[in-house]
């Protein structure tokens, strides 16, 4: 048994090694071959990412949760939010620098996403933090619905919002106070990730 089994085992090991070598070379070849094709698809159909989602989680002592989707449209990105368990009224709503909701108060998400080093402002102001989405407005039942097309949001390049944090604040954003809009504490935090159907 020992010698008969040993030879096939060696042969099998050789096959594995051969396969592994073949595999390690395959992606390089594939990459070279498909690069022009990818480019063609990209320009013809926009094969890039077209949809993202942030699932919002309550910070410590909060119950605010919900879902926010980001969908690429002709003139920007459509942002649609459904948020629950908010206090009635306006709440600052921003993309923050880091996709890190690990600290109980969500301060780990950093400040407003501001790759162009501009001043804080409202969403309709051209010179603003890219993350300045304004306010979401909750009704008496604590539900807030936000639906806006924003022409400054991108899924690609150095200002891409993918992987960044999304924050809902305790208070309204005044669109003036630097650099936060004086929106107070953070009641909900999520991370903007690539969505199915993208
Ligand atoms: Cu914020
Ligand atoms: Zn800002």
Care to describe what's here?
There is one protein chain. The protein is an alpha+beta fold and 198 residues long. 22% of the residues lie in helices and 31% in strands. It has one helix at residues 2-45, and strands at residues 51-58, 65-73, 76-84, 89-96, 132-138, 144-150, 165-169, 186-191, 193-194. Strands 1, 2, 3, 4, 5, 6, 7, 8 and 9 form a nine-stranded antiparallel sheet that branches. The model is unreliable at 1-46 (pLDDT under 50). The structure holds copper (II) ion and zinc ion. Copper (II) ion binds next to strand 4 and strand 7. Copper (II) ion binds at residues 92, 94, 96, 112, 167, 169, 183.
Work out the helicity level.
10-25%
The topology string of helices and strands comes to HEEEEEEEEE
| CATH superfamily heading of the largest domain | Superoxide dismutase, copper/zinc binding domain
Beta content? 25-35%
Number of helices: 1
CATH class of the largest domain: Mainly Beta
Q: How many domains make up the coordinates?
A: 2
Straight-line N-to-C gap: 55 Å
Name the shape in a single word.
Answer: globular
List keywords for this structure.
single chain, 1 helix, 198 residues, binds copper (II) ion, globular, Immunoglobulin-like, disordered N terminus, 2 domains, binds zinc ion, nine-stranded antiparallel sheet, alpha+beta
Write the layout of secondary structure elements.
Elements: H1 2-45, E1 51-58, E2 65-73, E3 76-84, E4 89-96, E5 132-138, E6 144-150, E7 165-169, E8 186-191, E9 193-194
Antiparallel strand pairs: 1-2, 1-8, 1-9, 2-3, 3-6, 4-5, 4-7, 7-8
Bound molecules: copper (II) ion (CU) and zinc ion (ZN).
Zinc ion (ZN) is lined by residues 94, 112, 120, 129, 131-132, 179, 181.
């Amino acid at each position: 048994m020992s010698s008969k089994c040993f030879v096939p085992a060696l042969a099998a090991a050789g096959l594995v090694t051969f396969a592994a070598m073949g595999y390690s070379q395959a992606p390089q070849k594939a990459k070279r071959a498909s690069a022009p094709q990818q480019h063609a698809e990209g320009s013809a159909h926009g094969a890039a990412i077209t949809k993202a989602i942030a699932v919002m989680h309550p910070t410590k002592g909060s119950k605010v949760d919900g879902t926010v989707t980001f969908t690429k449209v002709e003139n920007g990105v459509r942002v649609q939010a459904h948020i629950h368990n908010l206090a009635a009224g306006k709440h600052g709503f921003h993309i923050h620098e880091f996709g890190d909701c690990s600290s109980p108060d969500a301060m780990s998400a950093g400040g407003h996403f501001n790759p162009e080093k501009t001043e804080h402002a409202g969403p309709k102001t051209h010179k603003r933090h890219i993350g300045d989405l304004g306010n979401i407005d909750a009704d008496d039942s604590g539900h807030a619905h936000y639906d806006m097309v924003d022409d400054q949001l991108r899924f690609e390049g150095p200002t891409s919002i993918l992987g960044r944090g999304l924050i809902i604040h305790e208070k309204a954003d005044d669109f003036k106070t630097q650099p936060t809009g004086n929106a107070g504490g953070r009641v909900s935090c999520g991370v903007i990730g690539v969505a199915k159907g993208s």
